[in-house]
Amino acid sequence: MIITQNVFLIGPVGAGKSTIGRQLASELKLDFVDSDREIEQRCGVDIDWIFDIEGEEGFRKREQEVLGDLATRQGIVLATGGGAIILPENRTLLSSRGKVVYLQASIEQQLERTAKDKKRPLLQVDDKEAQLKKLMAEREPLYQEIADITIETSETTVRNVVQKITNLLMEEAV
Hints:
Strand order of the largest sheet: 2-3-1-4-5
Helix content: 55-70%
Shape: globular
Number of strands: 5
């Protein structure tokens, strides 16, 4: 059985949306798109530069436009940015245009995976752990609100996560 609808990956920074998304797209024979990379391509600059010049609000406007364009495509696996679910319009768009998969990650996993990352504007703070906890408290209910499938990514391999998602999507497609 082939999955033809879009699959949207949501979740916090460090949950593995891009890594898992690439493998999931390959497994499902769909195109892979990373919304943050798409924004950078369209703007010709890094996301941290957009944050520096336009602030988070300017970035979120660009993100909303890109998500609107990408969600109209057919047969993609889309890795969204961690904050893509902040705007109600984005949540409505994602939940109406495909299957939404929430990739959960522990704060410890997020810290580990972002330890050397200097390209995440919201994590350029002194207390990264406190910032991640704050973001999770704000965003967790929004991730849960639109998730069709929720997968914990902390204690498993990318391959196992991809297999779980694939199996669940196949079950729902029957």
